[in-house]
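tool_call predict_complex ligand=guanosine-5'-diphosphate
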Amino acid sequence: MKEKCVGCGAIIQTEDISKKGYIDPLVYEKKKEDFYCKRCFLLRNYNSNIEYEFDSKEYLENLESIKENNGLIVHVVDIFDLNGTLLTNINKLFNTKNIIFAFNKVDLYMNSININRINHYLRVLLKDLNIKYIDLALISSFKANDIQNLIDLIAKYKGNKNVYFVGMTNVGKSSIINKIIKNMVNEENIITVSNTMNTTTDNIYIPYDKKTYLVDTPGIINKKHLMYYLDKESLETITPKKFIKPKTFQLFPKQTLFIQGFARIDFVNGERSSFVTNFNNDLLIHRTKLENADDFYEKHVDDILKIPNTQERIRLGNIKVLTFNFDLEDKIDLVISGLGFISIYGEGKIEIKTFKNVDITKRKAII
Ligand code: GDP
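tool_result ok
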């Protein structure tokens, strides 16, 4: 069989349901063309998901072949999750003269922040990381104008090369390509869009002109990313769909903030400080006294806090403790990879209790 799934590009097969491209033999017999593999079919029709393996050797070989083709690379990054989705080794993977950055999901910031400042922040960040590229764009795949700007940018640099979209899973690659196609040929949702892992399982070639293609490449899964450990329902709850309303907490020492059940921030000592949380609006942020925090967690881990659930907590691993200091010289963000961030301004020391597989880092404040 050489047919490919219209949704994800995987080669259609009828033997192994746990592998990509699976389709029921009876369906295969009946259908003959325009196949959707079982996974894409379920995703499109019931929004449900089946798990299968991801072969990283295959993925690396794919990157190698993209490199050989020397096409234009559009590295799509989730602007709300820079730590989790920016490929800092991108210059090792591809020719530096051919890389465009598309920082997606900028709509999540829209109301709370000046876009020029983020643009500046990103340029400085890339410079600090010594990452070379030819151009960058801040976009939302939901905004037609932004997509048009990206199309113009691609047209400016592509010459007679293919255009490869690369990035982590869930950054919005398929959404962007769908919108580009829509803009070009007015056909919607050809590639399956979802927020589960590995929606895009193989390269998908979409004709751009007579000689070249837009290529959707498989998403890379970051094992540091929360997405790797959560069920679909939890993932829905933590993934922001519209702009994020920052919430401000003025905390005194000996107070605690729970970030749903993912992390607990104990303000150990210092001066009254401001903690501004930037997470999906539905995520629960609960303030309590430090002395009551243990009790609260024990009593309410499964009802008020609820996420992560018991199974997810097992996958996330043992509890670890991280310590951070902050002072009035520098406003900092604490980034919880895959979840969001907390901007802290003030003076003091915090202790964070979280799971082994939750990645929390400190950066210079973005806003
Ligand atoms: P891919 O795995 O990189 O191909 O990502 P998808 O295109 O499947 O998108 C993953 C999730 O991000 C979906 O829930 C999309 O609706 C969402 N998404 C994609 N683009 C945007 C965007 O510009 N803004 C926001 N807020 N969400 C987006």
